[in-house]
Amino acid sequence: MNERDAKARVTDRIADREDDLLSILERLVDAKSVTGHEPRGQAVMLEEFDRLGLAVDTWEPDAEALSDHPGFFHTSSYDDHGYEGRENAVATVDGAGDGPTLALSGHIDVVPADPESAWESDPWTLRREGDEIYGRGVSDMKGGLAAILLAVETLADEDVDLAGDLYVQSTIEEEAGGVGGLLSVLERGYVPDAAIIPEPFGLPNVGIASAGVMFFDVTVPGKKAHAAWGHQGVSAFDKASHVAAALNELNDERQAGIDFPPAYGADPSLEGHVTNINIGVVEGGDWPASVPAEMLMKGRVGWPPGESRADVREAIEGTIEAAAAEDEWLAENPPTVEWTGWNAAPHEVPRDADIVEIVKGNAESIIGEEGTFVGGNAALDERFYQRYYDVPVVTAGPYGPNLHGVDEYTTVTSLLETAQTLATSAIDYCGVAE
Question: What three-state secondary structure class fits 393?
């Protein structure tokens, strides 16, 4: 069977397998697998691997063994839950020739569905309305995993023997940073020649970049006093507001000066917002009648390819130092900055990489529309492949306009098109054994 015939056969077969797709996805959504509690979801993946007769490797990540890696950081899910019982799973489809190796990778964890009462139906039960399907993870990214499984099964059913090996990866804790997930997979030795991750970027658009993301804590001191003698105290809230204003000014400057067109290729509203500094949590004070003695601000900074983590840290720390120097109290009692949690560098894949051109061409052919290169506004597992192992990786997945939101949804059509794109791209990249 030549590659052209193989692609036509699997494309036609997948188009008729809507029920199979939804059966897999229904069980994945029902398996509530919020980050830190992935085993139920992995159990479904292992059942599918077993049904397909695939050899599977499972293991718990080892934080100590990973700690010397330049991409390592302690994730919040590791701090809260450890890695015991939280296994990664990789199934291998052995190639029948000497073609290049391809990984189809996805994460089994999802974010919480709170507030569940705001959903129109149970977020852990798949709901369909016409072509739209609803449930936590249908787009991010249990839908992508279902598409992977459907693609792999269809290749087997149509007797398409790839020339190169295919790694099918189901990983943990991507939503918390992926250190115990994809990084652990790569360190275990599953390093392909190229990779595809079906995150919900909306084919025929394909992702070629991700953002750097870091979390930070700013602790701002004050001087406690009874509110009736407030003039004798120093409000940490007021001083924190001064620091926050300086960070807002830095954010405005950075947004005006940093551009990365792929970040707004599919969402024009992101133009001028491809980098961002956000204060997401503010804590402090212990009594309404007391001047607060300390404020804690927890923030996130995200940025597209073009800067190092050291550059971004220097900009934020320098801004806080300058703001403190302007204030008599803070000059003598400076805020402290601690970098915690997420510590991800950005990545960008060359647009002319073979896997990028293959996936984009197949997606455009299947969907009948021209796509664009996107990415750079959010952190992704893809960075591990490209930055640390020099493996070209493309993001190619279903429609997902409100991932992480209430009533998360995608479409059956886009999931079938994702499976078709994955299967045909595996044929093109790995080749077909003679």
Answer: strand
Beta-bridged to residue 91, according to DSSP, are: 56, 168
Which has the closest alpha carbon to 415: 24, 1, 63, 71? 24
Q: Tens digit of pLDDT per residue, the chain (434 long)? A: 789 999 999 999 999 999 999 999 999 999 999 999 999 999 999 999 999 999 999 999 999 999 999 999 999 999 999 999 999 999 999 999 999 999 999 999 999 999 999 999 999 999 999 999 999 999 999 999 999 999 999 999 999 999 999 999 999 999 999 999 999 999 999 999 999 999 999 999 999 999 999 999 999 999 999 999 999 999 999 999 999 999 999 999 999 999 999 999 878 999 999 999 999 999 999 999 999 999 999 999 999 999 999 999 999 999 999 999 999 999 999 999 999 989 999 999 999 999 999 999 999 999 999 999 999 999 999 999 999 999 999 999 999 989 999 999 999 999 999 999 999 999 999 999 97
Whether 28 and 145 have beta carbons less than 8 Å apart is answered as: yes
Q: For residue 282, list its beta bridge partners.
A: 297
Which residue reads 């279902």 in tokens?
A: 146
Enter the tokens of residue 298.
């927890």
Tokens, residue 377: 């506004």
For the question of whether the overall pTM of this predicted structure is more than 0.90, the answer is yes
Cβ atoms of 296 and 286 within 8 Å: the answer is: no
